[in-house]
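Researcher: Go.
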Amino acid sequence: MNDHQLAARVAADAGELLLGVRDELAEATESERKAAGDKRSHDFLMGALARSRPADVVLSEEGADNPERLRAERVWIVDPLDGTREFSELGRRDWAVHVALWESGGKSGGESGELVAGAVALPAQGITLATPDVAPPASEPGSPRIAVSRTRPPAIALRVCERLGGTLVPMGSAGAKVAAVIQGSADVYVHAGGQYEWDSAAPVAVARAAGLHTSRLDGSALRYNRTDPLLPDLLVCRPEYTDAVLSVTR
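Model: Structure:
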């Protein structure tokens, strides 16, 4: 099984596990579902990757940061449950599992390394999007649709929407938002503040495979496996909107 297949397999399997947790804890509180989902998916992914790629290091949102990753040639960057709030609300479908692989390119840290594989599972939608083969989204005429947080849309996304004459598409997790652009139900995702590498690594890997633009809000490259995993801003969009969006966000 190659790295692309492994990413897709473990992301999808973690998603199936999470669906089971949701059913099992249907009568529990939302906080209990959140805690159980985070822990069980994290434990599953750590075990699955340790068995399949024992020499690799894992950076997980739910695990302690292992400093060995800064010297490693291969690092898996995972978010066991992206969109914990949406997962905890029974019936919502906009949550995800992220699994990405970063390789060093021969140097330590994130200065020259790159994402080489990734998968975003959307378990409640029965979908897993994974590298290397992702169909690019079909072009849609009309005003751009801007994917934003359903609870706290950033001011920069509102400015982009206003300047481009777009419409807002509120939804949950970062993975679900990027997936919406990949699948063609949104055109632009702009985020500022409050994200880490595990929030975007897998979605960015898959978006790139689909031919989408990915960058920081100033247009600079996204770098992963850095000493500080904070990566607070992100742009993913259809290529034809890149210049217009960056004219607002830079």
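Model: The two ends are 41 Å apart (CA to CA).
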